[in-house]
Each structure stands twice: as structure tokens, then as C-alpha cells.
């Protein structure tokens, strides 16, 4: 072990090695003034810049306060078309499926056509019967013409006989009874002529063509209309898509189901045209106008930013058109801020598929500045 003198000697040697220049090492107390100078400068910068930034931000907020109004009570909307059948009957074939994309004119389902095919054949028979009836009337009309000619000949003969009897009566060669008989035959011939003329007029009336369908007998025209109606109903047994879109609510459509006229069978969502319906608070509408720019974000696609314009502002609040409107005349009335539907038209179609009902957030630039 080293004694006390040796430890002191080693310590002195270590000091000399650490300080080759022979100068004493600076103490920590001597370094403090140089370290405090940068800290004071940084503190001054922070004390000046932070209030300045707050003042700038506050001024901007004060100047632009109320310019932008936003709501997250907004949803994607698309046209929906309820498909109904115009004729009734059992369904024999179903082509539509849930969420299937269809084009306008595609077959969705078919209804049993047999009753309507029978109606078409019955209408064809009615047309044939009407044509036969018209032919019979034409023959009768020609017969009445012959009757008129015969009645006219009878009148001429009766007049000649009457004139002869009158001449004989003047010379006393006939009797009063024969003269009266000749006059009676003239009168009867005239009545027969009038009857024949009436029959001819009736036949012409039955053969007359209607003004709505010139050149066609009314009976034949009616039969043809019934035939066209039957053919139209037959064509309606094939139910086609009225517009292009996606099929929804098709699960309730089953083969063998009896289709009722006017009852919605399924729904088509027209997904090629979308808009946003944003329900803004009534307090946000003061400076909102049609045509103002809007920005839309969707919860389903957070990275998708859409732009649009205010297309229309609702004519009433949502509560005004609800099934059970609020009864504000009661004594327990509580004021509630109402919301008004505002339609936002998108500037261009979205890059992603928009689905009806998706949640959205809408911000409208009203342009208001203080």
C-alpha cells in the first residue's frame, strides 16, 4: 500500500498530466456568464414572438369570423326510382338481384303472359266481327237504295193512275170510289218512299266514319283500340329497368309471387348522379347564398376532398315536413335550433364510388368578412 507521501506525489503527477500547459483548469463558476447569454436571448424571442403570433391569429379570426360555416349532419343522396308493375299476375321469372348493376331497358322480371295473350286473341276476333258487321251494313245500305227506287216508281205509277181517274171522272166515265182509291195509292207510295229513305239514312249513319279516325268505321276503330290495349298489356308483362342504376330491395321479389298493380316491386338507385344534402343550423344561414363554394369530405374516404356549390336552400326545416310535425302551441314549449336542408352540387364526379347515405362533412365559404 502507498503511504501518505506517495499518494500526494501521485496526485500531483496526475494534475500535471491533465494540465500540460501548467495552467490551472477553469472552474465551473467562471463558465456560467457565457452560458446564460444565449438563454436570455432565446427567452426574449419567445416572449415577443408568441404574443405576436397570437395577435395575428386573433386578428385573422376576427376578420374572417363567420365566413366559413360547416356541419357534419350531411349525407350523400342519389335518385331512387321505385319499379312497379302496370299489370297484375303471378311472377314467372326473376332476373334482378340485390346490388346488381342494370342499364335502362334490361329485363328485371316477368309476369305470366297467358291471360294477356288470350285478350289479344279476343281483340283480334272483335276486329273480325266488326268488319263483318260493317260489310252487312253496307249490303243493307245498298238494299235501301233499291227500296227507294222501287218506292219512287210506285209513286210515279200511282200519280199516272190518279191523273187518269181524274180525267175519267171529269167526263163521267168512272166512279168516285175509283178516284179515291187512286189517291190512296199515291199516298201509300209516298209513305213507302219516306220509309225507304229513313232506312237508307240509318244505314248510312251506321256506316259513317268517325272524325277522330277518318275513313274507319267507329265499330272497327273501337275494336282496333281494344286490340292495341291488349297488346300493350301483354308487353307490360315483361318489366324492364326504366333507368340505369343499381338494384336494391330485390329480396322481396320471388318467383310465384302475385304481383299487384302499382305496388313497388324493387328500387333502382341512380348512382351516376350524386349530391350532398347538408342540414345546416338556422343560425348559419344568414350569409349563405345559392352558388357559394363548398368543400366536402366523407367519413368513408378521409383522403378524398370534393368541391361543389350550393345548389338550393330548403323551403322548410326538416321538422316542418316530418310525419309527425312538432306541436309548438303546447304550454311545455322548448326552443330548439332548427336545421334546414341545403343541397350541394358536386363540381365533378368523385374518383371513388359514392353510396347513398354516406356521412359527410360540408364547409361553405359564405365570403363574409368583417
From TrEMBL:
Pfam families assigned: Beta-barrel_AAEA, BSH_RND
A single cellular component GO annotation: cell envelope
Annotated TM spans: 45-63
The UniProt record lists the keyword RNA-binding: no
Coiled-coil features, chain-numbered ranges: 179-206
Keyword Membrane set for record: yes
Multidrug resistance protein MdtA-like barrel-sandwich hybrid domain span: 80-263
Location of the protein in the cell: Cell envelope
Name of the protein in its database record: Membrane fusion protein (Multidrug efflux system)
Lineage: Bacteria, Pseudomonadati, Pseudomonadota, Alphaproteobacteria, Sphingomonadales
Amino acid at each position: 500500500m502507498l503511504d501518505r507521501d506517495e499518494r500526494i506525489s501521485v496526485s500531483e503527477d496526475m494534475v500535471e498530466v491533465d494540465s500540460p500547459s501548467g495552467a490551472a483548469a477553469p472552474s465551473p463558476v467562471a463558465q456560467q456568464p457565457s452560458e446564460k447569454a444565449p438563454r436570455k436571448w432565446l427567452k426574449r424571442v419567445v416572449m415577443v414572438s408568441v404574443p405576436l403570433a397570437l395577435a395575428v391569429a386573433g386578428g385573422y379570426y376576427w376578420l374572417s369570423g363567420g365566413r366559413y360555416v360547416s356541419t357534419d349532419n350531411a349525407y350523400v343522396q342519389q335518385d331512387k326510382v321505385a319499379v312497379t308493375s302496370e299489370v297484375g299476375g303471378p311472377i314467372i321469372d326473376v332476373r334482378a338481384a340485390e346490388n346488381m348493376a342494370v342499364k335502362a331497358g334490361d329485363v328485371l322480371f316477368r309476369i305470366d303472359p297467358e291471360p294477356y295473350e288470350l285478350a289479344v286473341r279476343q281483340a283480334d276476333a272483335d276486329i273480325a266481327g266488326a268488319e263483318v258487321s260493317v260489310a252487312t251494313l253496307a249490303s243493307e245500305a245498298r238494299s235501301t237504295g233499291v227500296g227507294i227506287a222501287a218506292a219512287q216508281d210506285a209513286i210515279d205509277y200511282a200519280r199516272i193512275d190518279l191523273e187518269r181517274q181524274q180525267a175519267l171522272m171529269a167526263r163521267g166515265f168512272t166512279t168516285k170510289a175509283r178516284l179515291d182509291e187512286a189517291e190512296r195509292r199515291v199516298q201509300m207510295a209516298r209513305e213507302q218512299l219516306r220509309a225507304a229513305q229513313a232506312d237508307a239514312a240509318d244505314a248510312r249513319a251506321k256506316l259513317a266514319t268517325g272524325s277522330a279516325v277518318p275513313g274507319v268505321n267507329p265499330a272497327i276503330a273501337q275494336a282496333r283500340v281494344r286490340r292495341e290495349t291488349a297488346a300493350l298489356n301483354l308487353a307490360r308483362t315483361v318489366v324492364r329497368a326504366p333507368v340505369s342504376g343499381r338494384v336494391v330491395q330485390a329480396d322481396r321479389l320471388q318467383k310465384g309471387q302475385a304481383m299487384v298493380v302499382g305496388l313497388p316491386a324493387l328500387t333502382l338507385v341512380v348512382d351516376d348522379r350524386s349530391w350532398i344534402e347538408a342540414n345546416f343550423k338556422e343560425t348559419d344561414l344568414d350569409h349563405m347564398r345559392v352558388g357559394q363554394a363548398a368543400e366536402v369530405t366523407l367519413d368513408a374516404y378521409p383522403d378524398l376532398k370534393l368541391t361543389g356549390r350550393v345548389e338550393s336552400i330548403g323551403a322548410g326545416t326538416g321538422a316542418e315536413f316530418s310525419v309527425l310535425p312538432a306541436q309548438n302551441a303546447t304550454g311545455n314549449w322548448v326552443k330548439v335550433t332548427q336545421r334546414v336542408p341545403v343541397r350541394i352540387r358536386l363540381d365533378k364526379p368523385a374518383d371513388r364510388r359514392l353510396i347513398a347515405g354516406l356521412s359527410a362533412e360540408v364547409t361553405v365559404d359564405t365570403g363574409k368578412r368583417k
